[in-house]
Amino acid sequence: MSNRRTFAIISHPDAGKTTLTEKLLLQGGAIHLAGEVKARGQARRARSDWMKIEQQRGISVTSSVMTFEKDYDGETITFNLLDTPGHEDFSEDTYRTLTAVDSAVMVIDAAKGIEPQTRKLFEVCRLRNVPIITFVNKVDREGRDPFETLDEVADMLALDVSPQMWPIGMGGQFEGLLDFESGEVSRPEGPSKEFLGKRDSDPEIPEEWAEEAELAKVGYPEFDLDAYRSGDLTPVYFGSALKSFGVTELIDAIAKHAPPPRPQPAGDEQIAPGHDEVTGFIFKVQANMDPNHRDRIAFMRQVSGTFKRGMKLTPSGLGKPIAIHSPILFFAQDREIADTAEAGDIIGIPNHGTLRVGDTLSEKDAVRFTGLPNFAPEILRRVQLKDPTKTKQLRKALDDLSEEGVIQVFYPEIGAQHIVGVVGQLQLDVLISRLSAEYKVEAVLEASPFATARWLKGERKALDEFESFNRANLARDRDGDLVFMAKSPWDVNYQIEKNPELTFSATKER
C-alpha cells in the first residue's frame, strides 16, 4: 500500500485538465496514442469523457477512475487517478470524489490565474487537509508573468509556493522549461514546437530569463515534504499539457512526494490503512457505463486491509454481507477483474442497486465512515412526462440517478409529481439527456413552487405537530426521511425561529 498514489486533478473548466489527464495516462503507459483531444468534432474528447452529453459539450461531467502503473528504481508505483468535473454545477460529485483521494493536482491556466471554481475546489481540499501540487498550464501561449501567478497562489490561497521549474520565455518567445533540480532544459521541437524528449544538460539561457529563473529559485521557500503533506506548501510545476511539457516532471513528483494512503475518519476515530480488517466506502455510483448491459458500478475507496476477490463484505445500508465476485479496476471505459486490492485502491463493484453513495463496506460491520454528505439543492424542478404511461420507468430512472448522486428526488406528501433537486443547471441537462438516452423516457422540467429544501430532525411529537400544519410543504426523500420544501430562504429562517425544537439541516449524512 505504500506504493499507492490516489489523487485527483482539480481545475476551473478549460484550464486543460482533461488534456493533462490524457498525457499522464500516456506517460504511465496506460494508452499508446494521444490525439483524441486535438481531434475535431466527435473525436474531440479524452478517453475519460465517455458520456454522451460530455462528447457533445466537450466537458467532463462525471468523475472517472483510471488506474495505471509506472516503475521507479525497480519499484512499481500504482497511480489511481480520479478525474473530476471542472464545472461548478457538478460540485457535489467533485466534493465526494475529493473524500476518496490522498492528494490533488491543481491545474491553473497561465493566462487566467486562479479562477472561482479552482478556489472552491481548493477550499474543499483544505477542509480535509489534502496536499496539493500546482501545475501552471499553457505556458507555450501568451500568459501572465509567472511571478504574478505564484504570488496570487500564495496570497489568495494562503499557501507557501515552491517553484520546481521555470519557463524560459512564454508564448511566442517560449524556449523551454528549466528543471531546478536537474538543471536541464526541456526544448520544443518540430513545427508544432512540442516536447519530444530533447533535454539540454548544459543549456544556454538568455540573460533575461536566467536572471528570472535564479530569482524564482532563491526568492521562494525550498520544497519541504512535511509542509507539503500537511497542506501548508505547494510545489509548483510549469508546463503545457497539450505540448507535453512538464508532464514527466509532474508524474515523477506525484510518485516521489505525494502521500501513500492516509487514515480516514469514522466518527470519533481514524481508520488507518494498516488496520487488519478490509474496509472502504462508496463515493460514487455510475449506471450504464456499458449501455448494452445496463450495468451499475459502485466505486469503493479501499481504506484498509487486503481485499481478495470473492470476499464477503457488509454494506452499512444493507446490514447483511454480500460476496464480491467481480471487482473491477478501471481505465476509463476499459476494465479488468481485480483479484486483490490494497488500501488506497479504487475498485468497482457491480451491483443492482444494493450499494449507494455513502455506504461503508467492512468485514465485521462495525465501522461507519463519515464525511460524505448530501447537500441541500439550490434548484428544484417538477418532472413532467410527455407519455403518462411511462410513470413506472420514470420512477425507476429517478431512483437510479439519485442513487448515483446525479440528482436528489423528493416525493411530495400532497401531489403526485416528483420533484428533483440539483446544485447546478447543467445537472438538469444531464438528467433530461440520460432519461432519453438510457431509459427511453421523454420528459420536461417545469418550475417548482419551492426554492430549497431542508432535512427535518427532532422528537417524534414535534415532527408530527409540524407535519399536521405544513403538509403541503413537506416531502420524503428516497430514504423516506422528512424534508421541508421552502419557498424562499426567508421561509427557512421563519420556520427555524418558530420551531426551535426541530433541526432544519442543509446537509444529510447517510
From TrEMBL:
Start and end residues of each stretch annotated as Disordered: 183-203
Pfam family, one: GTP_EFTU
Top-rank taxon: Bacteria
Biased amino acid composition, Basic and acidic residues: 184-202
Subcellular locations according to the entry: Cytoplasm
Binding-site list for GTP: 11-18, 83-87, 137-140
Keyword vocabulary terms for this entry: Cytoplasm, GTP-binding, Nucleotide-binding, Protein biosynthesis
InterPro entries associated with the record: EF-G-like_DII (IPR053905), EFG_III/V (IPR035647), G_TR_CS (IPR031157), P-loop_NTPase (IPR027417), PrfC (IPR004548), RF3_C (IPR032090), RF3_dom_3_sf (IPR038467), Small_GTP-bd (IPR005225)
Gene3D superfamilies, per database record: P-loop containing nucleotide triphosphate hydrolases, Peptide chain release factor 3, domain III, Translation factors
Residue ranges of every copy of the Tr-type G domain listed in the record: 2-262
Main location: cytoplasm
Record-stated family: Belongs to the TRAFAC class translation factor GTPase superfamily. Classic translation factor GTPase family. PrfC subfamily.
Purpose: Increases the formation of ribosomal termination complexes and stimulates activities of RF-1 and RF-2. It binds guanine nucleotides and has strong preference for UGA stop codons. It may interact directly with the ribosome. The stimulation of RF-1 and RF-2 is significantly reduced by GTP and GDP, but not by GMP.
PANTHER family for this protein: PEPTIDE CHAIN RELEASE FACTOR RF3 (PTHR43556)
Protein name per the record: Peptide chain release factor 3
